Amino acid sequence: MKNCLVAQSGGPTAVINSTLLGVVKTALESEKIDRVYGSIYGIEGFLKEKIFDFNKEDIKEIELLKYTPSSALGSCRYKLKDFNEDESDYRNIFLNFEKYNIRYFFYIGGNDSMDTVDKLSRYAKIKGYDIKIIGVPKTIDNDLFGTDHTPGFGSAAKYVATSIMELSRDAAVYDKGIINIVEIMGRNAGFLAASSALAGYDGVCKQLIYLPEIAFDMDKFLQDVSSAYEKHKKIIVAVSEGIRYSDGSFVFEDKNNKAHDKFGHSQMGGVGRILGKVVKDKICKRVKVIEFNVLQRCAMHFASKTDVEEAYRCGRDAVNYALMGESGKMVCINRINSSPYISENGLIDVSEVANKEKKFPISWITKDGNNITEEGIEYLKPLIAGEVNIPTENGLPRFSRLNLCL
Amino acid sequence: MKNCLVAQSGGPTAVINSTLLGVVKTALESEKIDRVYGSIYGIEGFLKEKIFDFNKEDIKEIELLKYTPSSALGSCRYKLKDFNEDESDYRNIFLNFEKYNIRYFFYIGGNDSMDTVDKLSRYAKIKGYDIKIIGVPKTIDNDLFGTDHTPGFGSAAKYVATSIMELSRDAAVYDKGIINIVEIMGRNAGFLAASSALAGYDGVCKQLIYLPEIAFDMDKFLQDVSSAYEKHKKIIVAVSEGIRYSDGSFVFEDKNNKAHDKFGHSQMGGVGRILGKVVKDKICKRVKVIEFNVLQRCAMHFASKTDVEEAYRCGRDAVNYALMGESGKMVCINRINSSPYISENGLIDVSEVANKEKKFPISWITKDGNNITEEGIEYLKPLIAGEVNIPTENGLPRFSRLNLCL
């Protein structure tokens, strides 16, 4: 018996199950693999032997994974210790690998999950275990090294840009000035907030964009917004949740007391509300603060077709690479051409990816630090291309209902 | 010359421009109407002679209105005074009607806008002006009298239910309990929050729903949530922004000091954050507060096909009714059958609609006051049916760009 195991880890995305389907379908169809197991709640669930058997599942529900957002197998944020310091988790994991005859393990996740792939594959090599371990990338933040971009990002970017366009139409309806502050995910990397620039061409409201890659300066920000408001009256400010002052402190922490209320208490909540308050006090009473919240990472209903297909392909190729004998690697996406867009998959040593974070290139931010250059736009554009027709039932998405209980 | 005027009023919806297209296209094609004017920023803009000439616009951009959210002509919240007390606005409006040879006026809006239709048509009758004035319904709140439902509601309901489904998938990924509080629009009528029940069948998280139609009781709420949490661990609480205590005060005002912070200050913000704080203090630390915000009323990208088509039809029939000589009426939608769903348009005296508010029927709320009955679901279901394929360009919606500057 040669079985395989697949698991998901870290924050969910709209297309992480498209990748799961790529793995599961390819493995189910392969003659070299007998059973296809899923670990429920990531590697942490595998330690507790929470196993799902895909061979027993209705193939229709499996196929629906392609258009089902969030981690269908559940997820975890579990960091393995260095095996030289504490081997206990490794022993238990490999005991379970043996118990279930797991010869292939696919871990779908971001940079922390690649750390797990790295450690497990190094441990397997040292101990001489016959198992191929492949990482499959996902993250809405697009902050993974060694790949042009990451599955999950394109759909989140499309959601952000589309919602900004719609919001911009909504904001423009009255004959009055308005400043909308939109808080977008991205603690360290500004790719997602940057993708709001894609909405720019529709140009109903003037847009300003602030990313964590540029140190935030409250005075300059207020000057930017104020002069944009004077000129355009209808403004959208798109801001990464992770923007920071030059001292490295997050704006949402408000350590510099820029947004203290009249009682001297620090404002609660995210950066959007902090900036909203300051703008309301100093520039314009008509301020709306909008948080895209988890919707930006779980909205499958207007996903990027490019993203869904690439996510699927990454899962599929992970299995193919493993069957070719590869291990300790992550599937990556190489961009061959931007326009027309062509990409192909490749492999990269997972040690080059694990625990690193890619940033939005400074050279793609305009000189005044509040917008994205044409080159940046050209990078982003193909990733949101194409629409999917998700299966529906009674007017609502028909998501996969695997026979497991999260 | 017999010209017509169309305007939009009140809060925007995803499909208010589908209605606009229904009016404009039918009027442009009619031999009885010469020019088709739009008033920019509603009746208030008409007072300032802000006029848009549809005959001069590219027909392609006009056709794109069908899938363009928010009020393309801009909007206002302008209440006409009683003409027995102050006739000045009426004089100016009718001077402009004469100046532009307006013989037909179509006002797309909610109950306040129907008050304008009512007053203008009564004034015209008294003064003997030859003008037909027809109201065309829109509102995401679905609170208009005299119509089974209102264009704009179905698409908002579909957005709410779909987002709740996606959110519910997102919330379930970790092996931990979580309580999500989702704040949904609806100051006085709970239709939109009720539509979150449509997501119920997908059943990943246990859902509780609170509407303004039932007096809110904080102790009962905490008991509901607490016992749901004990049993199901993963909970979504959908709540109308307008829920009220039995004394009539809004929960978000927090007059009863239920959610005061430790310094004794009232919490800022909406009802979601108020409830989130109380739940965090008393039940579970893992609480997420999500506001759907204006996105729920401007999201065209996953609109209800039924809603888009009905919105269009209401605009079309408004013109047809006016050409038949009707005035002082509102187009309404009559439900002939629920399953299969059949509806047809009708007319109702606008005086029966103006300034009134319909509520979500109490009989459609379950006895424990925190969910929707099957009968309620059956009412809601057909309104979100069907998907539209909106025109796209570079992966983003291609909205209409009328040659006017909002």
Automatic annotation (TrEMBL), chains A, B:
SUPFAM superfamilies: Phosphofructokinase. Non-allosteric. The keyword Hydrolase does not apply. Substrate binds at T139, I140, D141, M185, G186, R187, E241. The gene is pfp. This is Pyrophosphate--fructose 6-phosphate 1-phosphotransferase. Keywords: Cytoplasm, Glycolysis, Kinase, Magnesium, Metal-binding, Transferase. NCBIfam families: PRK14072.1. It comes from Caloramator quimbayensis. GO terms for biological process: fructose 6-phosphate metabolic process. InterPro entries: ATP_PFK (IPR022953), PFKA (IPR050929), Phosphofructokinase_dom (IPR000023), PKF_sf (IPR035966), PPi-PFK (IPR011404). The active site is at D141. Diphosphate binds at G11. Its EC number is 2.7.1.90. Its cofactor is Mg(2+). Homodimer. Catalyzes the phosphorylation of D-fructose 6-phosphate, the first committing step of glycolysis. Uses inorganic phosphate (PPi) as phosphoryl donor instead of ATP like common ATP-dependent phosphofructokinases (ATP-PFKs), which renders the reaction reversible, and can thus function both in glycolysis and gluconeogenesis. Consistently, PPi-PFK can replace the enzymes of both the forward (ATP-PFK) and reverse (fructose-bisphosphatase (FBPase)) reactions. Mg(2+) binds at N111. It is an enzyme of class 2 (transferase). It is found in: Cytoplasm. GO terms for cellular component: cytoplasm. Pathway: Carbohydrate degradation; glycolysis; D-glyceraldehyde 3-phosphate and glycerone phosphate from D-glucose: step 3/4. GO terms for molecular function: 6-phosphofructokinase activity; diphosphate-fructose-6-phosphate 1-phosphotransferase activity; metal ion binding. Residues 4-319 form the Phosphofructokinase domain.
